[in-house]
Amino acid sequence: MKLFMIVCMAAICSSLPGQERDAADRRWALHYSGGIKPLIRPVQTERPPRYSPGNAGSSLAVTGEYCLPGRWNLLAGYYRTEVQNGYGTRSMEGLRFGAKRYFLPSHTVFQPYLAGMGEWNWGRHAEWRRSVPASGIDAEAYSLNPRLSLIPGAGFELYLLSCLALTAEYGFNIGMASHSNAKISGDVIRDRGMFHSVSLGLKITFPFSLTWEDADNLLYILQETLWSMVE
Prior knowledge:
There is one protein chain. This protein has helices spanning 2-13, 20-24, 212-230; strands spanning 28-35, 41-46, 58-68, 72-84, 89-102, 110-121, 126-131, 139-144, 148-161, 164-175, 179-184, 187-206. The chain has an eight-stranded antiparallel barrel with strand order 1-3-4-5-6-9-10-12. It is elongated and about 65 Å long. By secondary structure, it is of the alpha+beta class. The protein starts with a helix and ends with a helix.
């Protein structure tokens, strides 16, 4: 928690008039994000209470962004997602594309945005598994993964340096013509291919440049981190 507060203070201190030119010069960016396991959760239409709701999924995405006038960014890149439904896991990977709309001036260190994205899954379209554990419980699961998913979302970027930001994003994934069914000794778990996800990441903007204010922030973070370790 101390380190998080240090990083936030450094970001706030970096919101200086001298950085307005660097922010305005941003043309494109690279963004890496990964999902938080407990917060990747399917929207299930049927599940007996004694089974897990499915909260051990994972995701990653690597995207490039191109900055447009009017505080719009276009994005495209690679994604991979695994969704755990309480019995099994289904996997999707492919192309992510979409757009983001920002609302605050570009030199502001805190940048909230709304996003509209799509994902084209080139991975397995259908998955089927069956097992008979040593306990004698008969279980089988069938998943029809979407080829196309639509994802409305929202997030924010917190700029630590003029060219480096921490990111957080929520998305609601709507899989087109998708569903999962699992039968475990007569019990049924179902979903319709929709799930929530929360991800954290890092974003680097280009042209890449560092200012004197960035150097001060780096020294501040290093100094405060060392002091917090000593205390």
